[in-house]
Amino acid sequence: MSLSPSQRINLMKEITRRLSRESWSLIDLTLKQFSLPWTSDWNGENSAYVLAMIEKASDQTLIELSEHLGYSPELTPASHLEPAFWRKGMFRLFISHLADHKVWASKLQAALLEYGISGFVAHSDIEPTTEWQDQIEIALSTCDALIALLHPKFHESKWTDQEIGFAMGRAVPVCSVRLGETPYGFIGRFQAFNGINLEPPDLALELFESFRKNKQTNRKMSEILISLFEQSGSFLEAKARIGYLEGLEAWEPSYSKRILSALESNSQIAYSFHVPSRVEKLAKKWSAT
C-alpha cells in the first residue's frame, strides 16, 4: 500500500527508535536482510545512522521492517496528522535555538515568510498538550534544512547538538549563525553567517539568498518562488517577487509558461509598474537558454 508522508515519518521514527537500540553488527545485518543500504564508515550516533539508511526505503519495506521489529502500524488515513507548523507550499527550515532566545528566533521565523520559507521554532510552534519530543522529531524528519542560532552556551544545551546531528544524518543542508559562539565540531565545516550585527530581517534575506543558490535547495526554492509570484496579492508583492525570480539559478521549462499565464490572469501582476515587461523579458531569456 501507499503511505502518506505522515505515515512514513511515524514508521521511520519507530523503526529508528527500535533498531538503534541494537548492536552495530545486528543493525547492519537487519539492513542487509531488507536490501537496505549500510556502511562500515560511520562516526555518528546509531539513531542518525538508522534514519539515514532507511530514509529512501519503499513503503512496503518500511512496513515489513517495522513488523519485524515488533511494531504493527495502524495504517489508517493520516491527513489529520500532517504537521500544522509548516506553511503549505513553503521551504521548511528548522531553527535550532536556545529557549532563552526564542523571541529572536520567532522574529527570524516571521521575517522568513516573505521569502517563502516556513521556519520551525519549537518554543512557539508546539502546543502545550502535544508530546514535545515527538513533534521535534517530526519537524527534523520533514525539514529541508537546519539553521543553528549560536548564542552563548548553545553547545551546553542537551537538545541543540542532537538536533544538528539528526539533520546531518539526513544529509540536509546545515548552517549556523555566529551570535556570540563560534561554530564547533561538525558544524564548523559548514557555512556560517555572522549575526552579531544583523537583525532578524537581515539574516532572513541572507538565508534566502543562500538557499536560492545552494545546489541542494535551489530547485525547490525556484518552485516555491514561482508559486508565490503566481499568487501575488498586491502590486508591491508582484514587484518584489519578480525580483526574486530574476535571481534564480534553477529554471524549469514550464516556469516561463506559468509566469506568462500569471501575467494574464493576475491583475496585481498585470498592472504593477514595469512588472509585465520584466516577466516577458525573463521568459524570453530562459526560453533562449
What does this structure look like?
By secondary structure, this protein is α/β, with parallel strands linked by helices. The chain folds into 3 domains: 76 residues; 123 residues, Toll/interleukin-1 receptor homology (TIR) domain (Rossmann fold, 3-Layer(aba) Sandwich), CATH 3.40.50; 71 residues, no CATH class. The chain contains 14 helices and 5 strands. It has a 5-stranded parallel sheet with strand order 2-1-3-4-5, with helices on both faces. Strand 3, helix 8 and strand 4 form a beta-alpha-beta unit. The radius of gyration is 21 Å and the shape is globular. About 2% of the residues have low confidence.
Structural descriptors:
single chain; 289 residues; alpha/beta; Rossmann fold; 3 domains; five-stranded parallel sheet; 14 helices; 5 strands; globular
